[in-house]
Design goal:
The structure holds two protein chains of two kinds. Chain A is α+β, with helices and mostly antiparallel strands. Chain A is globular. Chain A starts with a helix and ends with a strand. Chain B starts with a helix and ends in a 6-residue tail after the last helix. Chain B has three domains: 100 residues, Sandwich (Immunoglobulin-like), CATH 2.60.40.10; 345 residues, Alkaline Phosphatase, subunit A (3-Layer(aba) Sandwich); 90 residues, no CATH class. Helices cover 26% and strands 25% of the residues of chain B. In chain B, strand 4 and strand 5 form a beta hairpin. By secondary structure, chain B is an alpha/beta fold. The chains are: A alpha+beta, B alpha/beta.
Chain lengths: 236, 597
């Protein structure tokens, strides 16, 4: 797996050109019009990957933490203008497109941040479609959330993210061949100026949650759930 | 005291020679590895790759490879490809290699491969055996992963009970004509895993731990190791027979994948590749087991692929009927019998019999999984449509997967289910195809054994380990376990008053209460000091101090010979003490396989 990943990294790096020091390590996501599901209007037909590729790439930079209190639909994951449409973009686009219409029952939240637990992420596993994302998880796309978990052993020190897990991992699955990440994980992206120290203690993360398959171009790690952290709190 | 100068010089030179500090003629010799290794055995015409590795920046000027004295490229009528790579990170050495792909040895006999490199010669000896006349039309290879004689004995007693000192019934294998012993050691280790052992049975070649369908080389690429052809590949290439693979594990796991796969390790990446190799290689007519996570593109949550291939779609395009539950399997068989079937019944490994039938809360999202008997008979129904015959490998995967976490009841229940699957196949063969060879074996051992019984009431009433140990009875005091089968399903109810004192002889720190666990066991959990006792597992059990490295979370495989049982035409080959790789030859001989076509 590691080897495949690194092959993937090499390809992605080649496709991506120079990495920026912004949040460019998130692979671009479909530049499609956002389908507002908040009004529960019938979903238009999902655009195909081919269609999305002919659209111009919006120059959306990473937004600061959203504190939009109005009930709202799923948002796109931030785009990175430096990433041309490549393999990773198609992957993310395909899943994001396929996923959005499945917000069958949009949930609105009175609180902000919204508390969510890892065991609320999924609602079963369908043998033909994979893990079924819960309505709560889908509804939290773009919302500010608070979640508790453990910091997995870092992949490498200079990364701008770490992996938050439900259970404490004694080792880094990504670092050893043959091991897998558990399902219930989230990538936690730090602010540019933040540094953090690895800890074995449970921690609470507050920040904006983004849902949708994406590949971190620096490591090749595929993620479904990312949080742009405003605050990290060690629970002693 | 003063020595003559010449004596001092001679002594110094002799010392340097002994210490290897002086240049001598052999100094230019470089370490050479020849793959396949010495003692390798073949059928004539079976495809394989010959790889010769030399630890040097480049192949030495005098580098030459010969087969029985003839230049290898001339012998094979094929040219080698030269490559090199770095071996090791901390003290790297360069390796240069010459590889002949897809070659074969044309005739039975003895072969010596000689490699000249740096003034020194390295030899390996191979043997090619004469194919035999076909006596069987079909072969069914049943593998119970990690099954041992002590497990069979315990399961038999628990299932049938004892009356007058005699077991009150018998398993399917108890009436087999031939019983033998199988040596399971590896090329690179005295120990073994499920990959190289199943590979030995399917290719006739012993291999290295974690490797399937290859001889492990030193290159970092896990998919470029020199390959050997599997029985199923030979059958695909030279016959019109059908191929089937049934398992209760993820279908890309070691035992099932050894029917078709070639790779060095068992990582997620390799498993994802094995799912592709099945399709792009022999395309088994029947594939059944778990493993949905290797079929989704990586963008699907719950996928373990690292690429964008939608394997469900690719299997479907290749003509497979796809089913995902016992109900769908039955429906598929009841309508038009499919010619090619992909049955995926779990995300990863299928659940064990005990959880499918008793502790069903443990099934999670996968509540409609077929059992091993139904999968085996479904496979036979589909494969036996072919008048040219079939090769079917059936694996009961979870004896091993439950012996690792020291769960005797889950492991033994799957052994009993395995025996019922064999019984169903034996009955089918007797009625429909007596020219079917049925071989039953294990891939490796586990250190499980019963040494007495436990009085559960006394054990649970005890307040400390000394009291609990008083509840363990041995010899005549052991009496009999009180397992019953009140629901008549052919499986013992494990929650009895008197149970087996059965343990695994190698384990982490853990606690043991000898009683059936309502949830699958996790005997040890990780800590900063390695794996330690899981306080939630058998909390009332006896403390068992670990005898494994702290990094081992569960029991491991053991060295013992495993049994082989055989019945039907060609069975007499197996009734002796054999190497695991001989199982390939026994099956190939029975089918009259001649890889020359």
């Amino acid at each position: 797996m590691k080897r495949l990943y690194f092959a993937g990294i090499a390809l992605l790096l080649a496709a991506c050109g120079t990495a920026t020091d912004q949040h460019s390590s998130i692979t671009a996501i479909p530049p499609e019009e956002l389908t507002a599901a908040a009004d529960m209007a019938p979903s238009p037909a999902a655009p195909t990957v081919e269609e999305t590729q002919v659209l111009p790439t919006p120059t959306l930079t990473i937004a600061p933490t959203l504190t939009d209190t109005a009930p709202r639909a799923a948002t796109p994951t931030p785009l990175n203008v430096d990433l041309p449409a490549g393999n990773a973009r198609e992957i993310a686009a395909a899943t994001d497109t396929a996923m959005r219409p499945e917000v069958q029952h949009l949930i609105t939240f009175d609180e902000s941040p919204v508390s969510i637990r890892f065991d609320e992420f999924y609602n079963g596993y369908n043998l033909r479609t994979g893990l079924v994302l819960s309505d709560k998880l889908l509804s939290l796309d773009g919302q500010t959330v608070q979640i508790a978990g453990y910091m997995a052993p870092p992949l490498k020190p200079e990364l701008d993210y770490f992996v938050l897990t439900r259970i404490r991992l004694a080792f880094c699955p990504f670092c050893s061949t043959g091991a897998d990440w558990p399902d219930d994980i989230a990538l936690i992206y730090l602010n540019n100026d933040d540094t953090t120290v690895a800890t074995d203690h449970p921690m609470r993360v507050t920040g904006r949650m983004e849902i949708g398959a994406s590949i971190d171009h620096e490591t090749g790690m595929v993620s479904l759930v990312r949080i742009y952290a405003d605050n990290l709190e060690i629970i002693q | 005291m003063k020595y003559p100068r010449i004596l001092v010089l001679v002594a110094a030179l002799a010392t340097m020679l002994i210490l290897g500090l002086l240049p001598v003629a052999a100094q230019d010799a470089v370490p050479v590895t020849i793959l396949p290794v010495t003692n390798a055995e073949f059928l004539p015409g079976a495809h394989f790759d010959l790889r010769v590795e030399v630890q040097a920046e480049a192949l030495p000027e005098d580098f030459a490879v010969s087969i029985n004295g003839q230049d290898a490229s001339e012998f094979f009528g094929a040219e080698a490809v030269d490559e090199n790579w770095q071996l090791g990170d901390e003290n790297p050495v360069m390796v240069s290699a010459s590889t002949w792909r897809g070659v074969s040895l044309p005739e039975a006999g003895d072969y010596t491969v000689s490699v000249m490199a740096g003034g020194a010669e390295t030899n390996v000896d191979w043997t090619v055996y004469e194919p035999q006349e076909a006596v069987a039309k079909n072969v069914i290879l049943f593998i119970a992963d990690g099954m041992t004689i002590p497990e069979i004995t315990a399961a038999r007693v628990a299932t049938f009970g004892i009356e007058g000192g005699k077991v009150n019934g018998e398993f399917a294998t108890d009436s087999f004509d031939e019983i033998g012993l199988v040596h399971t050691n590896s090329v690179d280790s005295v120990m073994m895993d499920s990959a190289n052992t199943a590979s030995a049975m399917n290719t006739g070649h012993k291999g290295s731990v974690n490797a399937t369908g290859i001889y492990a080389d030193s290159s970092p690429d896990v998919l470029d190791d020199p390959r050997v052809e599997t029985l199923a590949e030979i059958l695909r290439r030279t016959t019109d027979m059908s191929i089937g693979v049934v398992t209760t594990s993820d279908y890309t796991d070691a035992t099932p994948a050894s029917v078709w796969a070639h790779g060095r390790d068992r990582s997620s990446g390799s498993r994802a590749t094995y799912a592709v190799q099945a399709l792009e290689g022999i395309q088994p007519d029947v594939l059944m087991g778990g493993g949905a996570q290797y079929l989704f593109p990586q963008s699907t949550e719950g996928s373990r692929r690292a690429d964008d291939r939608d394997m469900y779609a690719e299997y479907e395009a290749a003509g497979y009927t796809i089913v995902n539950s016992a109900t769908e399997l039955n429906d598929a068989l009841a309508s038009d019998m499919p010619e090619k079937l992909l049955g995926i019944f779990h995300r990863s490994d299928m659940n064990v019999w005990l959880d499918r039938n008793v502790y069903t809360d443990n099934l999670g999202d996968f509540t409609d999984q077929p059992g091993l008997v139904d999968m085996t008979m479904a496979a036979i129904d589909i494969l036996s449509q072919n008048p040219e015959g079939f090769y079917l490998e059936v694996e009961a995967a979870s004896l091993d997967k439950q012996m690792h976490p020291l769960d005797q009841e889950r492991a033994l229940s799957d052994l009993i289910e395995f025996q019922y699957a064999i019984a169903a196949a034996v009955e089918w063969a007797a009625q429909n195809a007596p020219d079917t060879l049925i071989v039953v074996t294990a891939d490796h051992g586990h250190g499980y054994e019963v040494y007495g019984t436990v009085d559960v009431t006394a054990f649970n009433a005890a307040e400390d380990d000394m009291g609990r140990r008083q509840a363990i009875r041995t010899y005549g005091a052991a009496g009999f376990p009180t397992y019953t089968d009140s629901d008549g399903d052919g499986f013992p109810e494990w929650d009895a008053d008197i149970v087996f004192a059965g343990v695994v002889n190698n384990h982490p720190d853990y606690t043991e209460n000898f009683q059936v666990s309502e949830t699958p066991r996790v005997p040890a959990i990780s800590s900063d000091n390695g794996y330690v006792d899981n306080p939630d597992d058998d909390p009332n059990g006896i403390v068992m101090s670990g005898d494994l490295a702290p990094s081992d979370s569960t029991g491991v495989h053991t060295l013992q010979d495993v049994p082989v049982f055989a019945e039907g035409p060609g069975a007499e080959f197996f009734g002796r003490s054999i190497e695991q790789s001989d199982i390939f030859f026994g099956m190939a001989y029975a089918l009259g396989v001649d890889p020359r076509g």
